Amino acid sequence: MPITVSLTVNGRPVSRAVEPRTLLVQFLREELGLTGTHVGCDTSQCGACVVHLDGRSVKSCTLLAASADGASITTIEGLAAPDGTLHPMQAAFRENHGLQCGFCTPGMVMSAVELLHRTPSPSETEVRGWLEGNICRCTGYHNIVKSVLACAEEIRAGSASAAVAAE
């Protein structure tokens, strides 16, 4: 028997009837068409499905949509400004070649945004530790870490928008 799930996704209220066993990642991708959140492993190992639930990074393949009822969700699609201007973290990944195939990128970016919210000036070791739950099979992580550190530096220098701090 379907249940109704109501939440705010990328600043917009949504409500849908779903099966109780529907995962949050399925809800986002199949019900809302937000396919930037990827399903990579189905076991919560890879981190491709990371979204923000009430400002915290979560692996959306491990949560039932019903458990997010009433919450605010931000997906990779919700980071960019309405005019298409990239979020500072997205821009840093692009400028520092922090992606190759791009499959892990949404989860990496979402995780990194929360890291900078919690730790505005992380060390390389802190970045690597924070991203430990995200797997990239292409880049070897060097440029991903470089991207996160570059975004942190831009924020400290005041040249990036306050979007990261506000996230």
> How would the global form be characterised?
globular
Average pLDDT, rounded to a whole number, is 93
Cα-to-Cα separation, first versus last residue: 36 Å
Give the low-confidence spans: none
Number of DSSP-assigned strands: 5
What does the largest sheet look like? 5 strands, mixed
Instruction: Determine the structural class based on helices, strands and strand pairing.
Output: alpha+beta
* Gyration radius, rounded: 16 Å
Order of helix and strand elements from N to C terminus? EEHEEEHHHHH
Q: What is the tally of helical segments?
A: 6
User: Strand-residue fraction?
Assistant: 5-15%
Helix content: 25-40%
Strand order of the largest sheet: 2-1-5-3-4
Short précis:
Keywords: 2Fe-2S, Iron, Iron-sulfur, Metal-binding, Oxidoreductase. The chain is α+β, with helices and mostly antiparallel strands and 167 residues long.
Textual characterization of the structure:
The chain has 167 residues and is of the alpha+beta class. 34% of the residues lie in helices and 15% in strands. It has six helices and five strands, in the order E-E-H-E-E-E-H-H-H-H-H. A five-stranded mixed β-sheet has the order 2-1-5-3-4, with helices on both faces. Strand 3 and strand 4 form a beta hairpin. Helix 2 crosses helix 5. It is globular and about 50 Å long. The model has no long low-confidence stretch (mean pLDDT 93).
Secondary-structure topology with pairs:
Layout: E1 3-9, E2 12-18, H1 24-31, E3 50-53, E4 56-59, E5 72-74, H2 88-95, H3 105-118, H4 124-130, H5 142-157, H6 163-166
Parallel strand pairs: 1-5
Antiparallel strand pairs: 1-2, 3-4, 3-5
